[in-house]
Structure formats: structure tokens, C-alpha cells
């Protein structure tokens, strides 16, 4: 089943990174036939196989060269890197792109009623976490003698269970912390999903495939942030209108049939247009202001 000529990419099988990673692969033109129970999914239009695994396994698979690339959260990647280095294992990889999903932070939190005046307050205490290496590195940097207690799940109940005085866990909204009577205190690591690849040479074919796909990722990410803006503007206010449009140094200006004093302006904006800007444009006499999403971009 495994063919070494095909590019092997590891993705999280099911979890917070799965959907966005698969969607990104689809958006860059890779057709996938994913069957829920199967570890491997073959692309039907490119020489690519997906390996669907737990996210914990992805850094090691890349570092051992078992797969060529992987989508992984920086938190997990950095933790595994430290763990492997401590065990004297190879921990090399290359980050190809930082992606626009999977955002979260690894934070220290303590019970609402705890006396906390900075990480020094944890001196001599126990902190439950799934990321002991990241946490211990932080303690070392901060010169704090505290103990990281490894828990692979239910970290947030550790203080109530009397297992630890604080926790260090991933947070995105803070709702889980609040529900467990905890307050976020120190952010020790900020994370996003990244696309990584193994070190070492690739065959000419694999390299050519990578070189074709990576610019498409840039195109998809750029397109998500960009907008296509169209509007009608009074000719006399053209310069003021241009000044209001982000990235509109050279907009396309088109004549409007039957309207001598008005032109149509089209522009690809690198960012969204805020309501406030639209209102200012309207005040200048602009009309029919349209802001549209862009699906793909190149060049
Ligand atoms: P697996 O079964 O694959 O081991 P998991 O339970 O370890 O799954 P998930 O909860 O699916 O992992 O999270 C995967 C990654 O998603 C995290 O390591 C992190 O990079 C990212 N992430 C984004 N937001 C959050 C969040 N609010 N909480 C936890 N992880 C988040
Ligand atoms: Mg995991």
C-alpha cells in the first residue's frame, strides 16, 4: 500500500486540526478519497498519500522521515522536539509555512481563589500539563522551581482533584477554564498550525510536486485575506477615493456608459474593507460599493 514514490503527508485523523488541514489540501487542488476508518487516503489526481494519525505522532513521523510532510500545531511540534532532544533522538524538521488556523495559547492557570502574583508564586508547587517539556523550559527561563505533572487528559480538573496547585493547558476562548473555576495567568506559548517537512533530499519528482503545491498554499491564504472591491466613484474625487482604498495604488478605473462624471473602480485589496471606510467612500459620493471574497489568487 505504501509507495515511496508518492509524497506522504501526515494529518490529524480527527480533532481540531483535521478539517482545516483537509480543506487546505482540497483548496490547493488535491482530490482526496477519505474513508473514515482508514489510516491511508490516496489522492486521485496527484502522487500523494495522506497518513491520518493522532496529532501526537506527526512530529515524530516527520523527524524520522517516515512521512515527507505534516500538518501540526506548533505547541505539539515544539513539545515533541524538546522531548526527542532530551532522549537523544533526531529532532530535525523544516517549517514550510505557518498557517492561518489552529490558533491557541498554552497558558498557566490557577484556581480563582489562589494567591497569585506571577509565576514565582508557583515555587515548590505542582502544575498539571500535557506539555511538560514546554512548561519546564518556561520554569527554567523564569528561575522557578516548580514541578510539571504530566496528565494526558482532564488537566483542568487537577487542582480540584488535589493533584496539582495549577495547570498549564491550551486555551482559545477561556470557557473551559472558567467552567472549572480557573483563571488564566501567564501565556507561555502561542501556537498556530504549521506545515512541516522532513530534512534531506527529495526525489526530483517529489521536489517538483512540492514546488508546485507550496505556492498554491500561499495563494489560498492570500485570497482568504483579500477582497475584490468594486464601486462607482465621482471622477472629481478619484484621488481621495484611492487614498481610502487599501492597496489601491493602481486600481482599475473604467468608464461608465452614459455617465460622464462617474467611473467604476475595481481593486484587489489585501485586507477587508471596514464599514467605516465604506461610509467615508459614500460620503465622497461613491455608490454601488461591493466587497467580494476571492477564492484563488496567483501572481
Ligand atoms: P489527537 O486525538 O489527534 O491526539 P488531541 O486531543 O491531542 O487529538 P485536539 O484537541 O484535536 O488534539 O487539538 C489539536 C491541536 O489543535 C492542538 O494541539 C492545538 O495545536 C490546536 N488547538 C487549537 N485550538 C485549540 C484549543 N482551544 N484547545 C486545544 N487545542 C487547540
Ligand atoms: Mg494529541
TrEMBL record:
Protein family per UniProt: Belongs to the ATP phosphoribosyltransferase family. Long subfamily.
Domain called ATP phosphoribosyltransferase catalytic: residue spans: 54-218
Catalyzed reactions: 1-(5-phospho-beta-D-ribosyl)-ATP + diphosphate = 5-phospho-alpha-D-ribose 1-diphosphate + ATP
Organism: Salinimonas profundi
Listed EC numbers: 2.4.2.17
Domain Histidine biosynthesis HisG C-terminal: 223-296
Regulation of catalytic or functional activity: Feedback inhibited by histidine.
UniProt-annotated location(s): Cytoplasm
Any one GO molecular-function label of the UniProt entry: ATP phosphoribosyltransferase activity
Transmembrane regions listed in the UniProt entry: none
Keywords: Amino-acid biosynthesis, ATP-binding, Cytoplasm, Glycosyltransferase, Histidine biosynthesis, Magnesium, Metal-binding, Nucleotide-binding, Transferase
Keyword Magnesium attached: yes
Cofactor: Mg(2+)
Full protein name: ATP phosphoribosyltransferase
Function in brief: Catalyzes the condensation of ATP and 5-phosphoribose 1-diphosphate to form N'-(5'-phosphoribosyl)-ATP (PR-ATP). Has a crucial role in the pathway because the rate of histidine biosynthesis seems to be controlled primarily by regulation of HisG enzymatic activity.
Top-rank EC class of the record's enzyme: transferase
Highest taxon of source: Bacteria
Chief place where the protein resides: cytoplasm
Pathway stated in the Swiss-Prot or TrEMBL entry: Amino-acid biosynthesis; L-histidine biosynthesis; L-histidine from 5-phospho-alpha-D-ribose 1-diphosphate: step 1/9
UniProt-listed InterPro entries: ATP-PRT_HisG_long, ATP_PRibTrfase_cat, ATP_PRibTrfase_CS, ATP_PRibTrfase_HisG, HisG_C, N-reg_PII-like_a/b, N-reg_PII/ATP_PRibTrfase_C
Residues of the signal peptide: none
Pfam hit, one: HisG
This protein's encoding gene: hisG
Amino acid at each position: 500500500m505504501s509507495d515511496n514514490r508518492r509524497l506522504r503527508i501526515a494529518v490529524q485523523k480527527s480533532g481540531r486540526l483535521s478539517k482545516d488541514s483537509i480543506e487546505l489540501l482540497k483548496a490547493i487542488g488535491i482530490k482526496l478519497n477519505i474513508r473514515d476508518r482508514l489510516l491511508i487516503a490516496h489522492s486521485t489526481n496527484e502522487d500523494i498519500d495522506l497518513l491520518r494519525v493522532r496529532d501526537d505522532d506527526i512530529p515524530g513521523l516527520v523527524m524520522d522521515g517516515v512521512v515527507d510532510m505534516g500538518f501540526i500545531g506548533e505547541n505539539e511540534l515544539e513539545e515533541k522536539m524538546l522531548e526527542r532532544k532530551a532522549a537523544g533522538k533526531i529532532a530535525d524538521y523544516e517549517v514550510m509555512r505557518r498557517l492561518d488556523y489552529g490558533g491557541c495559547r498554552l497558558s498557566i492557570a490557577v484556581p480563582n481563589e489562589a494567591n497569585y502574583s506571577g509565576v514565582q508564586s508557583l515555587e515548590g508547587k505542582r502544575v498539571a500539563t500535557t506539555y511538560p517539556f514546554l512548561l519546564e523550559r518556561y520554569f527554567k527561563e523564569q528561575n522557578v522551581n516548580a514541578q510539571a505533572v504530566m496528565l494526558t487528559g482532564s488537566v483542568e480538573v487537577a487542582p480540584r482533584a488535589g493533584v496539582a496547585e495549577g495547570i498549564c493547558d491550551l486555551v482559545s476562548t477561556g470557557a473551559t477554564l472558567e467552567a472549572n473555576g480557573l483563571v488564566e495567568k501567564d501565556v507561555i506559548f502561542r501556537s498556530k498550525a504549521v506545515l512541516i517537512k522532513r530534512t534531506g533530499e527529495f526525489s526530483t519528482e517529489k521536489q517538483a510536486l512540492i514546488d508546485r503545491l507550496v505556492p498554491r498554499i500561499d495563494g489560498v491564504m492570500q485570497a482568504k485575506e483579500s477582497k475584490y472591491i468594486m464601486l462607482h466613484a465621482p471622477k472629481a474625487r478619484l484621488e481621495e477615493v484611492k487614498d481610502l482604498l487599501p492597496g489601491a495604488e493602481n486600481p482599475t478605473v473604467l468608464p461608465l456608459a452614459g455617465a460622464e462624471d462617474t467611473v467604476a473602480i475595481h481593486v484587489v485589496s489585501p485586507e477587508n474593507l471596514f464599514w467605516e471606510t465604506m461610509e467615508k467612500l459614500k460620503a465622497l459620493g461613491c455608490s454601488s460599493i461591493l466587497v467580494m471574497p476571492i477564492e484563488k489568487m496567483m501572481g
